[in-house]
Amino acid sequence: MRKFLVVFLVTLLSLAIFAQKLGGRLIIAMETEPVGLDPHLVTAFASHRVLENVYDGLLRYGENLQLVPNIAEEFQVVDPYTIVFKIREGVKFHDGTPLTVEDVLFSFERILNPDTKSPAAAFYQDVESIKAIGDNKIEFKLKKPMASALLPNFAGVNSSIVSKKFVESGKNLQLETNGTGPFYLAEYVQGNYIVLKKNPHYFVKDQPYLDEIKIVFMPEEVSRVSALRNGDVDIAKINEPLNVRQFPEGRFKIYRSPVLSYYLIGINTTRKPFDDPRVRNALNYAINREAIIKTVAFGEGVVTGPLSPMVQPWALLPKDFDEYTYNPAKAKQLLAQAGYPNGFEFEIVTSQRYNFDKVAQVIQAQLAEVGVRAKINLVEWGIFIKRWRESDFDTFISMNSGSIEPDIQFYRTFHSKGSTNVFLYSNPRVDELLELGRSTVDTTKRKEIYDELQRLLVKESPIIFLYSANQIFVSNASVEGFKLLPNESLIFLRETYKK
Asked: Residue 496 above 90 pLDDT?
């Protein structure tokens, strides 16, 4: 009887503790609002952070960036040319419609349709066929033995599963959503806030814990800091490391994590003088990356090459590149060889978001020391995205997302036909290496391929790789279960709660 009573009390206590996790509202202050809501089209981080909680892919990332089942309850690499996904039963879209194999097929047909112009299309261009096997399986047959390289794509927002019925009814997915994720988009007041509410149909039992998440858009960091200190929000994105000092331990929690994304200078390789690789490479030597980290990120960051140093075993480290040695004399030498002994003038298109403008200012000053005169054109965020898409720039300061898989990071960006190759960069050897990287199964040989690719990308410099900043969030003491991932995903909001 005594043993039964103990077990009964422990059970009651466990239920009580779990009950404390359920319900409530979390208010998050973010600096940037989404640029569109269509998961197959968006490229902006701000859109991905919302949509990854609204839509699901066949797979998702776990806490250690491992691939775990999602809409697909099981997946199998049958051979290097074949992947089979078993679709989970009982998954429903937010409007209550059951998800079927037809929705999965339709989603990938939409991604691959040239009229869609999905940035994910480049990932799947070597897919030979996609077909249903019975009522609950999908088979991907590949033209090349690249199954392992392809798998991480199925966890990305751009590979989300959408409702065939919803899309074919004429709905504009840039304005309306209907996913299967833990939250549904209940309200969106542009320029102000988004409200996500708990999906009652979510297929993971007892998730999400919260009833509602309100994401308020506060472009000015001082506003986010003030709102958090005053208790108007529960958690806030902090970009200025010095501001962390305003949050004393006990009252607040600090979340800090390195990221896979990286700051960069993007270059239109078809515009003079940047059509000459020597000019582009000269910028490498003229830029002091450590000084940028110290000045802009207050030390909260690391110099990065084409791949983040965290992406092992694939990444070559910055110390492996002579170009990463700050050497103004070498920069001047390369400029003179290219016919610009007195430097030249050009424009940097940038925005105030993500400290792009501050990075541009430091680079402007550094380039002036080698006679290169940079004019900063500060534009509104929507205009920045438009000019990026249309390759309407000499150069720009921005940030690219990273990946644990080199094919994902490199192919769509640097292949001459890559869907995000806004640099208009074309190099036959780079294309060849990218194709080999996709089709080679042997890990040692793949490593050799991507080593050569990284060295070539630094030498050719369609992008000047700069640094990866630490991501920092701060919450009040009541927030529990919040986790950051190096890919900057916020998917663990489904396990966040307030005590």
From this structure: yes
